[in-house]
C-alpha cells in the first residue's frame, strides 16, 4: 500500500477497534492488535512494514512528552529510588536474563544481548491504557518507569548491535560509561531546551505560535540529544518535567486549553496507531518462513516471554526486602507496600512498538558484508513476546488489580478540594481591590461575591463529607441534600445550554447571524459547559 492508504487504513482501524473494545469490554490494545493482524493478511494490504525511525523519531518523542507533562513530579521525587531501580536496574537485569535464555536457544552472545535490550523496556503506550485503573502512587511508578527505561535499553541496544555487527568492542565498563554519559547529556539538553522554550514563549502573544513551539518541543529535544550521542528519551522527559514547573506562569490560558485538546487527540491516535501497526507487521515477520522456523520461533517466544515476566516478578519481590533491610527510617517504613499492592505494577510489564522498532532496526549484514545470523529469530521472538504479554497480561490485569485490593488515594481528592478552596479564597480576598481598580459597580461586585460564597459553601460541604468525620445520620443526610440541590442546579444549567445552542443555530439558519458569529457564541457556550462539567461534585 501507498503511504496515504496506510494512514487511512490505520485511522479507520483505530476508530473501529476502539469502538469494538468498548463493546466487548476488552483492553483496546488487544483489539487494535488483533484487527491489525487480521487486516495485515488481507490481499493487497499485507507487506506493510513500519520504518523503525517512524517510531523512534516521530511517535516516541510526542508520546513521552505528553506523558511527562501529565505526571506528578512530586511523586517522582518521593519514589525516585524505586523508579531508578526499575528503569535502570531492572532493564539491565532483564537484558541479562533474556540474553542467557537467547543464547541457550541458539543465538550468539552479542545477538542474545541485542534481544535482551530489545525486550528490556516496558511500553509507555500500553501502560498508559491501564494506568487509569490504579491509585496515584502505583500509576505514577508505572508511568515514570516506562518514561525512562527506553533510554537505558536503547543505550544497551546500541552497544549490543555494534558488537554483533563487528563495529564496536566494549566491555561492561564501556557500557556503564555510555549509560552515564547518555543520561547526563540527555538531562543537560532537556534542561537547556526547557529554559529556552520558556523564554521564547514568554515573548509570544499569538496562541497559535505558542502551540507551534509546544508541538516542536519534544522533537527539538530528542534530535539534538541523539546527534550528540546522548539519550533523546531522557532529554524529552527532562524537558517536559521541567516545563511543568517553570512554564505554568508563562503559557497563556488559551494556549493551554488549545494544547490540551490537541495533545489529547494526537496521543490517542498515536497510541492506537502503534498497536495497529504492530499487528500489520506480523505478515512481514512470518512471510517466507518455513513451518519449522515458525515453530522454533513459537517455542523460543514462550521461553523468552516467561523469562521477561518472571524476571520482573522476581525483581519486584526481592529488591523491596533488600531495601527494607538497609533503610529502616520511619519515613520509608510508612511507604512500604505489601505483596498484593506491588503485584499490579509487576504484572503490567507490557512490551510494545518501541521493542519492535528496535528489532527492525537491527542490520541484516555484518561489517564484513556477511548475513547477520539470528536476526530472523530475534524478529519473530520480539513480535511473539509483544503479543503474548499483551494478551496474557492484558486479559488478566483487571483480575490482578481486584486481587491486590488497592485503595484509592484519599489525599488526591483532598488536594483538589484544597486547591479549589484556596483559589476561591484568593479571589474573595482580592475582590474589592480588583473591583476598585476596574471601576466595577457595587451591584456587580455583590453578585460575584454571592456566587463565590455559594461555591465556597459547596466545597466546604464536599470536604466534610469526603473526610468521613460526619457520623450523625441526620446531619449527614442534610449535607447530602444540599449537595444534591447543587447537583440539580448544575444539571438544569447544562440542559438549558442545549436550548441556547438550538436558538443560536436557528438564527444562523434564518440568516439572521453569520457563521462567524455562530462560532464565537458557540465557543462561549462550550466554555460554560466545560466549567459546569468541571465542577461536578463527586459521589
TrEMBL record:
Principal location? membrane
InterPro entries per the UniProt record, alphabetical: Cation/H_exchanger_CPA1, Cation/H_exchanger_CPA1_bac, Cation/H_exchanger_TM
One annotated GO molecular function is: potassium:proton antiporter activity
What keywords are annotated for this sequence in UniProt?
Antiport, Cell membrane, Ion transport, Membrane, Sodium, Sodium transport, Transmembrane, Transmembrane helix, Transport
Alphabetical list of Gene3D superfamilies matching this protein: 6.10.140.1330
Top-level taxon of the source organism: Bacteria
List where in the cell it is found. Cell membrane
What the entry lists under Pfam families is as follows: Na_H_Exchanger (PF00999)
Q: Name one GO cellular component term.
A: plasma membrane
Q: Which residues form the Cation/H+ exchanger transmembrane domain?
A: 12-401
| Segments passing through the bilayer | 6-23, 30-48, 54-73, 85-105, 111-135, 147-168, 180-197, 260-280, 300-326, 347-365, 377-401
Q: Name one GO biological process term.
A: sodium ion import across plasma membrane
* Membrane topology according to the record: Multi-pass membrane protein
Protein family (similarity comment):
Belongs to the monovalent cation:proton antiporter 1 (CPA1) transporter (TC 2.A.36) family.
Summarizing the function annotation, the protein's role is: Na(+)/H(+) antiporter that extrudes sodium in exchange for external protons.
The identity of this protein, by name, is Monovalent cation:H+ antiporter, CPA1 family
Amino acid at each position: 500500500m501507498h503511504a496515504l492508504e496506510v494512514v487511512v487504513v490505520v485511522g479507520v482501524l483505530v476508530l473501529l477497534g476502539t469502538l469494538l473494545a468498548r463493546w466487548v469490554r476488552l483492553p483496546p490494545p488487544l483489539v487494535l492488535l488483533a484487527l491489525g493482524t487480521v487486516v495485515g493478511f488481507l490481499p493487497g494490504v499485507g507487506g506493510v512494514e513500519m520504518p523503525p525511525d517512524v517510531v523512534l523519531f516521530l511517535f516516541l518523542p510526542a508520546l513521552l512528552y505528553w506523558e511527562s507533562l501529565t505526571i506528578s513530579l512530586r511523586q517522582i521525587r518521593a519514589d525516585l529510588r524505586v523508579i531508578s531501580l526499575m528503569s535502570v536496574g531492572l532493564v539491565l537485569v532483564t537484558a541479562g536474563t533474556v540474553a542467557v535464555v537467547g543464547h541457550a536457544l541458539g543465538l550468539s552472545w552479542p545477538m542474545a544481548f541485542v534481544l535482551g535490550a530489545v525486550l528490556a523496556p516496558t511500553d509507555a503506550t500500553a501502560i498508559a491504557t491501564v494506568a487509569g485503573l490504579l491509585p496515584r502512587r502505583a500509576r505514577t511508578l508505572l508511568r515514570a518507569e516506562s518514561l525512562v527505561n527506553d533510554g537505558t535499553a536503547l543505550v544497551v541496544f546500541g552497544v549490543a548491535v555494534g558488537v554483533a555487527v563487528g563495529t564496536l568492542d566494549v566491555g561492561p565498563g564501556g557500557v556503564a560509561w555510555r549509560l552515564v554519559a547518555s543520561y547526563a547529556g540527555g538531562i543537560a539538553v532537556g534542561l537547556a531546551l526547557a529554559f529556552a522554550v520558556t523564554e521564547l514563549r514568554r515573548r509570544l502573544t499569538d496562541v497559535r505560535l505558542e502551540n507551534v513551539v509546544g508541538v516542536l518541543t519534544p522533537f527539538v529535544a530528542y534530535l539534538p540529544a541523539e546527534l550528540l550521542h546522548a539519550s533523546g528519551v531522557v532529554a524529552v522527559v527532562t524537558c517536559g518535567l521541567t516545563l511543568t514547573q517553570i512554564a505554568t506562569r508563562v503559557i497563556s490560558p488559551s494556549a493551554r486549553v488549545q494544547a490540551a485538546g490537541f495533545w489529547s487527540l494526537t496521543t490517542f491516535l498515536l497510541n492506537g496507531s502503534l498497536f495497529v501497526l504492530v499487528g500489520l507487521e506480523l505478515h512481514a515477520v512470518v512471510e517466507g518462513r518455513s513451518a519449522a522456523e515458525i515453530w522454533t520461533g513459537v517455542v523460543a517466544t514462550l521461553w523468552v516471554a516467561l523469562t521477561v515476566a518472571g524476571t520482573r516478578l522476581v525483581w519486584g519481590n526481592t529488591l523491596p526486602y533488600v531495601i527494607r533491610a538497609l533503610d529502616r527510617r520511619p519515613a520509608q517504613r510508612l511507604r512500604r507496600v505489601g505483596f498484593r499492592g506491588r503485584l499490579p505494577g509487576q504484572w503490567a510489564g507490557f512490551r510494545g512498538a518501541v521493542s519492535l522498532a528496535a528489532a527492525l532496526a537491527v542490520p541484516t549484514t555484518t561489517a564484513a558484508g556477511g548475513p547477520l545470523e539470528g536476526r530472523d529469530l530475534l524478529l519473530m521472538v520480539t513480535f511473539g513476546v509483544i503479543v503474548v504479554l499483551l494478551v496474557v497480561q492484558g486479559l488478566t490485569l483487571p483480575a490482578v488489580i481486584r486481587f491486590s485490593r488497592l485503595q484509592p488515594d484519599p489525599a488526591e481528592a483532598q488536594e483538589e478540594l484544597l486547591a479549589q478552596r484556596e483559589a476561591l479564597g484568593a479571589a474573595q480576598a482580592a475582590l474589592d481591590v480588583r473591583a476598585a481598580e476596574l471601576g466595577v459597580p457595587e451591584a456587580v461586585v455583590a453578585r460575584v461575591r454571592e456566587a463565590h460564597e455559594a461555591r465556597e459553601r459547596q466545597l466546604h460541604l464536599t470536604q466534610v463529607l469526603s473526610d468521613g468525620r460526619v457520623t450523625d445520620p441526620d446531619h449527614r443526610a442534610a449535607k447530602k441534600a444540599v449537595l444534591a440541590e447543587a447537583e440539580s442546579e448544575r444539571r438544569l444549567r447544562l440542559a438549558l445550554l442545549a436550548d441556547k445552542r438550538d436558538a443560536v443555530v436557528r438564527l444562523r439558519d434564518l440568516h439572521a447571524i453569520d457563521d462567524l458569529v455562530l462560532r464565537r457564541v458557540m465557543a462561549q457556550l462550550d466554555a460554560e459547559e466545560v466549567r459546569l462539567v468541571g465542577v461536578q461534585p463527586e459521589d
